[in-house]
Amino acid sequence: MDSISELELFQAIVDSGGISHAAVALHSSPAAVSRRLRQLETRLGVCLANRSTRRFHLTDEGKLLYERAAAILESVRDVESEVSSRGTVARGLLRVGAPSDLGRRQLSTLLAQFARLHPGLEITLFLSDAGIENMLDGCDVALRFGLPRDEGMVARKVATSDMLLVAAPSYLTQRGSPATPEELRAHNCLRLFRRHRVPGPWRFLQQGGFVDVSVSGTLGSADGAMLREWALAGEGISCEAEWDVCEDLAAGRLVRLLPSYPMPRIDLYVVFAPGNPVPPRIRLLVDFLIHEFGGLTHA
């Protein structure tokens, strides 16, 4: 019997409270466990425990071995986990959350590509614009705009985008174009809801500081893709990330409004739980997404 197996056996006996309980935990018999313990004592030349059918007490030598064994076995597990975490293959189940439009337009293709690279992986994609939280939404990895509420999570920035006000030519023909942020109050503004919270004002950089403008409108949704569809249909003015509407702007389906009044940029983060180490399926996906989203930044 090797030394690590001996230490694991002794730790199991002590943690279980005796030979009989350890035998159950180890799927063995009391006689076999007792025999292995006697072999360990014989090799060490000391008595490790005073035992009877009802009592099991460690000797001073047994206490010393148990304390040192616990530390050694923990170090062994740490080393094994660290080495395993450096593997280049992702396996198992992986639940990924992301904003709706980003998920449909960019992330879905990237996840399919990542799954082809790792055939042993099963990925589920959850889409929501309510502000995904890993624990609350049951996600291993979440792509989200802005930092998570849970400060215990690890957040790595993957991209940055300007926020733009856009509307369809048909809407502007009917309602006209606002010349200043304040004129938005007279327009039908499409608003994004997050977890049933009332949408806040739209913020603009004006004369060296930020100005908040409270807007209103007849349509709102927790799905950002729906706001874009309404904007394309001429229903109102929408506040969009540049990467979501750059193709529509280039094709003339949407028109940018108030370019002289920039809005705060948004950061896209990939968020996951800390680990020692982080499981390969999460670490590899995070590294993959950071690399692939590197070209998505719009400034």
UniProtKB/TrEMBL annotation:
Write the protein's name: LysR family transcriptional regulator
Source species, domain of life: Bacteria
Q: Which CDD domains match?
A: PBP2_CrgA_like
* Domain HTH lysR-type per the UniProt entry, residue ranges: 1-59
The family assignment reads: Belongs to the LysR transcriptional regulatory family.
Q: Which InterPro entries match?
A: LysR-type_TF_proteobact-type (IPR058163), LysR_HTH_N (IPR000847), LysR_subst-bd (IPR005119), WH-like_DNA-bd_sf (IPR036388), WH_DNA-bd_sf (IPR036390)
**The organism's lineage?**
Bacteria, Pseudomonadati, Pseudomonadota, Betaproteobacteria, Burkholderiales
Per UniProt, which keywords does this protein have? DNA-binding, Transcription, Transcription regulation
Give the Pfam families listed for this entry.
Answer: HTH_1, LysR_substrate
